[in-house]
Amino acid sequence: MKVLTANRLSDGIAVWYAAGGWAETVGNADIAYDKAAEDRLEAIGAAATANNEVVDVNIIDVAIVDGLVEPVRLREKIRAAGPTIRTDLGKQASPQPARAA
């Protein structure tokens, strides 16, 4: 399973492609379950970069853990959660359940 992530150009916030726009939580991201869906996300990311909406566009691996979408790599877990020194701040303070596919 993969999702499209980037940083919003206007403020640098980590975002994930979801339902035709960019969500601030990975739990809302559109999940690619096959190569065709992954290619579609890559095309969306390329267009968003060309339109100066986002930078640092990447397709990343995710898993569903206890009903939540969770990035696989540590770097992406940190981007999804927020500050590593205060778990009461940032996105990790209120995890979002995974959207139904």
> What is the residue-averaged pLDDT?
88
Multimerization status: single chain
Major sheet: arrangement of strands? 3-2-1-4-5
Major sheet summary line = 5 strands, antiparallel
- What is the count of helical runs? 2
Strand content: 25-35%
| Terminus-to-terminus distance | 12 Å
Portion in helices: 10-25%
Q: SSE string, helix = H, strand = E?
A: EEEHEEH
The domain count comes to 1
Shape from CA axes? globular
Which radius of gyration do the C-alpha atoms yield? Answer: 13 Å
Notes on the protein architecture:
This protein is an alpha+beta fold and 101 residues long. The protein has one domain. The protein contains two helices and five strands. It has helices at 35-50, 74-81, and strands at residues 2-8, 14-18, 21-23, 54-65, 68-71. This is DUF2849 domain-containing protein. It comes from Mesorhizobium argentiipisi.
